Each structure stands twice: as C-alpha cells, then as structure tokens.
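Why predict the complex rather than its parts? Because the way molecules touch one another can change local conformation, and only a joint prediction can capture that. The input here totals 439 residues.
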Amino acid sequence: MKYPNTDSQSAGLFAEAQRVLTDGGSRSTIRIAPYSIYVRSAEGKYITDVDGNRLFDFNNNYTAMLHGHAHPTLVEAAVEQIKKGTGYSFGSEAEFALADLICGRVDNFDKIRFMNSGSEAVMKAIKAARAYTGRPKIAKCENAYHGSYDFAEVSLGVQPTNLNEGDPQSQAYSEGTPQGVLDNVVVIPFDDVAAARRILEEHSSELAGVLVDPIGALMARIPYTDEFFAMISEFCESSGALFIADEVIAFRAGLDGTQGDRGLKPHLTTLGKIIGGGFPVGAVAGSADVMSVFEAGEGKAKLPHGGTYNANPVSMAAGFASMKMMDAEAFSHLNGLGDAFRRGCAEVLKLTDAEGQIHGQYSIFSITFAESDLNDASARGAVYRSSGLHQYMVQNGYWMSPGMLGVCSTIMGMSDVDQFCTTLQSGIETIREKRSDAA
Ligand SMILES: Cc1ncc(COP(=O)(O)O)c(C=O)c1O
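Output of the joint prediction:
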C-alpha cells in the first residue's frame, strides 16, 4: 500500500468529507496526518480500505476486537439477536447472561451495570463514588487516559510536572472546561508513591475516589509498581475514598482482568471494549454495597442511571459470545502472543543494533525509538516515534497506530510473529540504508 497517496480514494474521501464531517470524521483519536484512511470492510486479521488495500490490523479498534474482525461466532450471535429486536425498554436475557458470566469471574464484582462506552462507564463510576461517599473530588494520575468525561480528561496530554518545582496542577484538556471541574480533580504523579501519597492525604476528607488504570501508562507500556497499588489501597482504606480501577483496556489481561493478576481489590471497576464483542459497550461493576447507589428500591436511587441503549441486547449477545470464548486457555494463548511479539521485536532490535525499546504487557506490545528511558516519564509525549518505520510497516501491509502499538487478537498465531518480525527487520534496515545514502 502506498501511504500517503494523494491520488487514493481515501485521500479524496477525506477531502470531500470535510464538507459534512469535522476533520473528516467523528473520532479525534483516529485522525492521522495527512489524511485518515477509510475502511470498506474488515474480516479476521485484516481490514480492506476503500482503495482495496488489505492491511493486517494491529490496532484492533484500540484493543476492542479481541477475536479480530467479523468473527463468525460473534456475527452469528449478533445476527440472531438482531432478528429478535435491537433495542427495547425492557431487560433482556442476554443482559443477565453477560452480567452473570462477568460477575462469576471476578471476586470484586458482586453487581454490574451496562452502558454504551468506556467513557460513560468512567463517568458513572466517578458519579457513583461521589454518590456513595458524599464527597466531591476524584484523584487521577497525570496524563492518564480515561476517556472523554470532563473530570477524567483533566491533565491529559500535559508536560509531566517536575516535582522539584511543585505538585501537578489540574489542567484543562479542552477549551471551555469549567473551573469547577479543575477544582474537583486532584492530579497525582504517575507511580510516584511518596509524592502521590502526600498529595492524596492533603485532600483526603474531600476525595470520593482514586481513579487508576491498572495496566499502567501509555496503553500498557509502563506498568505501575506493586508499591503504588499498595499505597492507593491503604489510602482508600484509611480515608474512605473508593479505589476505582479503569479496566476498559486492562480487562483483556485475563479472566479477572489486571486486578486479578495484580491482586487488587478495587471498590469499583469500569469496563468496555472487549466485553461488547465488537459492539458499543461500557460497564461499571463493584461490591454490592457500593453498587447499591444505583438501586431505587422503594424510592429514588442515590444515582439514577437512565440510557436508551444501556445494555443494548445486540452488544450483550455479542459480548456474551465473545467473553464465553475467553476461557483460561484463550487468555493464555492471547498473552503468549504478546510475549512472543515482545521477544521477537527485541531480537530484531538486537540483530539490527537499533536503539529502541520494546514495551507492553499481556497482549499489547510497542516499539519505540527512545532518546531517554521511557520509564522516567509519565507523558504521552515521551514516546519517540519513528514515522519512517511506521510508514514502512503500513506500506508493507501492517496497520499499527503511529505510536507503533501492537494489539493481539485470539486469531493470531506464532507464524504472524515471524512474518511481522521479518518485515520489522527489513524496515529498520531499509531506513538505515536510506539514511546512509542521504548522508
Ligand atoms: C483506560 C480507558 N478508559 C476509558 C476509555 C474510554 O473508552 P471509550 O473509548 O469506549 O469511550 C478508554 C479508551 O481507550 C481507555 O483506554
């Protein structure tokens, strides 16, 4: 595939779409320069764009497509449900089945409620923490991504604070963010146990919850230490604030998510992506006590929660089929692929003597070319990209996000690792040759 290609149909569509779609689309996180690629269809490991180019999809809709695209089992589950209706103002068996399956797997989940996106789940979890504790503030890590709710967006995409110059300040992500939002978000530095503890203590009587994505920073690239988790748990225990684990991505780590693997006991957890079988979904789960804020009983719930498409039966049916396929063996295969890609990429860096780093956990890996040790920074901007290599991979049939993130799906196999590594190696060598020719 030639990219960029000003003569392509994608480039043309991108130009034309500006007439009716802002920036040619509806999702800031997939906008790429110089133009967005438009996809006509997707099947298995591959997407096919409007120009007929077929690309191995290593993004998998930012981790949501656990079994690749249009998996026959999920298509069948969705189609069967579509025939029975796609949305109604009643509960469904599919909703109960998915709730029962997920709650049955995770010790910290007594009850769950479904909604339509991870962002909505984070919003509801924050509101639940406020309703439960009667306190206004939440704490989150600087630069941690938790979706698009105002409070969750605070201090996203900022220069990491130099703690010698003071504590992190709440910074608006979008223009027009009310001061009241900033005043009610306490920002803590990523994985800095002492500084974060001190800052949390300063606000302890006002904090409703501490929001943490347990898979770490930069989409699983940098994990938290056990000490950081222990500090958050201790703080929540002593202050009465709720520990909110955002497992919208992290839940792909295993049967009971990253919280199971890391031995965490969050009061509330947000879910999304994989639990919808490729359809829009979000969920909040937690202890019966905390989740009772959603219960109306004989009167009004502390936190009423309406939503026309909450627990949409198509998402529920596809989600159930998707999660049912994920037994312990399937998770072990998925995470084994992540290990194999990380090992393979590290080998390529060694063979080519490239100054790069391989990051990631579970079924996610990334290749970055770092000028500084990535572990020192919490900034999204700390990822050094090789746009030349990204372009080479796209031109040679692999779609990865520009940050060179690879997201595995269960339908991948070890032969995919070998083929990818061969292309990666030739990409690094080709870029080297071009550079030395230019020098
Ligand atoms: C950790 C985390 N939380 C929340 C979200 C928001 O989910 P959604 O895009 O479904 O709104 C994301 C999305 O990538 C995420 O990575």
